[in-house]
Amino acid sequence: MGTIAFAVSGAMVAIEKRMDVFGVIVLALLTAVGGGMVRDVLAGITPPVTLCNITDFVLAMLTAALVSWLYSAGWVSHRGKRHIIWLYNICDTIGLASFTITGMLTGLSHENGNPYLLPVLLGVITAVGGGILRDIMAQRMPVVLYKDIYATASLVGALISCLLYPYIGLPGMAWLCFVIVVGLRFSALYYGWHLFHPRPNRFR
């Protein structure tokens, strides 16, 4: 679910930047598997799982091809820009929550020392790493650094679910994390929540 969702978001950024179909596929792949590859390298899993299993690659490439076809066939038009943004945000949020969970599971399976630090950090890195690579390739500032409640939603969901993991078990932890991340992200989009942006005081 996360792979397909992030592949859609990567493909839509590529289309917005007017890339050709190769660029669309590259950005879809980067967004879908980039964060997981960074996670595996940091966790000492080499080669990364993605490079040993073709499923994620095929899913991302097929998704990118489908998005490209739908756009060129007129299913997605310039008039439907609001629907495009809506679809992008839904896919990006689902991917954010899903990959936060997979990163946490990797951290829990490699528990060493602090029981929270590794799962939480790997969860956040898995969730936002692909999006950062996507934005760098698209020559724009990574959204995670300035817009909305994004990485913060992943961080809060991972931390709370990790703290409650001993009491609710693995399935409960995964679902709790998913609900928290999706809830925070959609609430931020709906209500226009943002983190504090330091600004100079002009009235001094």
UniProtKB/TrEMBL annotation:
It is found in: Cell membrane. It comes from the Bacteria. InterPro entries: Gly_transporter. It is a multi-pass membrane protein. Residues 1-70, 90-165 form the Glycine transporter domain. The chain crosses the membrane at residues 21-38, 58-77, 84-104, 116-137, 149-167, 173-196. The keyword Transmembrane applies. The keyword Transmembrane applies. Keywords: Cell membrane, Membrane, Transmembrane, Transmembrane helix. GO terms for cellular component: plasma membrane. Belongs to the UPF0126 family. This is Trimeric intracellular cation channel family protein. The lineage of its organism: Bacteria, Bacillati, Bacillota, Negativicutes, Selenomonadales.
